[in-house]
Amino acid sequence: MIRVGSRDSRLAVVQAEEVCRALGDCELITMKTTGDMVLDKTLDQVGGKGLFVKELDRALADHRVDLTVHSLKDVPMEQPDGLPLVAFTKRADARDALVMPESGQWDKTKPIGCSSARRRVQLKQLFPEIDVQPVRGNVQTRLAKLDGGAYGALVLAAAGLQRLGLEGRISRYFSPDEIIPAAGQGILAVQGRAGEHEDAARLVDDADARDCAAAERSFVKTLGGGCFAPVAAYAEVQDDTLHLRGLYVTADETHMARGAVTGRRTEAAALGRTLALQLRHQAEGEA
Question: Which whole number is the average pLDDT over 99-107?
Fold first, then answer.
C-alpha cells in the first residue's frame, strides 16, 4: 500500500484522492502545514509558498509517507535533495475566475480579494477603479469572507472551485489573455523519494502537463520569482509545438511586459528561459 501525504484542507484532500484513485491501493495521510495555520499575514511576510510543503517534505524524507500531492503552483522552484517531483497530472482548467457574493451583486465600492501579486497587478489593469486587497485562507474561508461583506468579489483558481463542486459560484472566467495564470495552475504535482515508486508515478504522469510545467517553471525560475513576485507563465501544447505566454513586472511595479514565444516542446525549459530574459529586458529597458 502506498502512503500518500497531503495538506488537510478540503481542496488538498480532494486533489490527493484524485491521485489515489489513479494509483489504486493507497492510504491517505493528511497534515496541517505552517501555511495553513498562519492566516493573519500575506505569504511574502511569512516565508512564501514553501510554508505549504515543508511539513510534507519532512514526512517524505522521514519515510512516514511514500508520495505527496501538491498544487503545482504552490511548489517552490527548488526541491530538497532526494525529493524530486516525479509526476504531473493532466491539467485541469488553468484559468482564474471571478466569484461574486451569494447575493449575486458586485459592490464595486468594496475591494476585490485575491491571494497573489500576479493577480493583483493584472486586476489593476482590468479594473483600475476598484481596490484590490489580499485575502488568505482556504477556499471556504475566503468565500465566507466574501459572503460576510468584507469583499465585493474574489478571484480564485477555476480548477480549485471545480474540484470542490463550487463552479456554480463562478461569475466569469478570465481568459489567459486577460489574466495570465500562475505557473503550474491546474496541475497537480506528485513528489517522492528519488528512485522509489517510479511505476506508480508513471500511472498519473501526463506528458503535456510535464512539458507545460517545464516551460512555466523555467520562466519563473529564470526571473528569480517566488510566490509573491508578480510574474506569470502559461504554456499550451499542440502536437510537437509549445506556446508560452509570460508576464514580468519590475520590483517597483512601475513597468510591466507581456509576451509569448513558440517553439518545439522538447525545448520547453529553454523556451521559458528565453521568454523570461526577453520580458525582463523589455520591462527594465523602459524603467
Answer: 93
Task: Given the residues 36, 57, 74, 96, select the one marked as catalytic.
Answer: 74
Question: Hey, what domains does the chain have and what are their CATH numbers?
Answer: 1-89+187-205 (3.40.190.10), 96-174 (3.40.190.10), 206-287 (3.30.160.40)
107 among known catalytic residues: no
Indicate whether 42 pLDDT > 80: no
What DSSP line would sit under 139-172, residue for residue?
Answer: HHHHHHHHHTTS-SEEEEEHHHHHHTT-GGGEEE
Tell me the C-alpha distance between 166 and 189, whole Å: 22
What is the sign, positive or negative, of the torsion defined by CA atoms of 199, 62, 83, 234?
Answer: positive
Residues 6 or more apart whose Cβ sits within 8 Å of residue 128:
none
Under the banding of pLDDT at 50, 70 and 90, the label for residue 148 is very high
Per-residue model confidence (pLDDT) at position 46: 46
Joined together, the cell numbers standing for residue 232 give: 506569470
**What's the rounded Cα separation, in Å, for the pair 283 and 287?**
7
Alpha-carbon dihedral angle through residues 258, 262, 268, 271, given to the nearest 10 degrees? -50
